[in-house]
Amino acid sequence: ILLLDDAGLVLEANRSAAGLLDHKADDLRGKRPPGPVGTWITSRLGGRPVDGAGLDPMRLGQPPRWFELVTMDTREPDGARVVQILLRDVTERYEREQGLESVAREALVAREEEQQRIARELHDGPVQSLVQLLRGLDTLASEVPEPQRGRVVEARAEAEGVGDELRRFSRD
Question: Global pTM?
Answer without folding.
Answer: 0.49
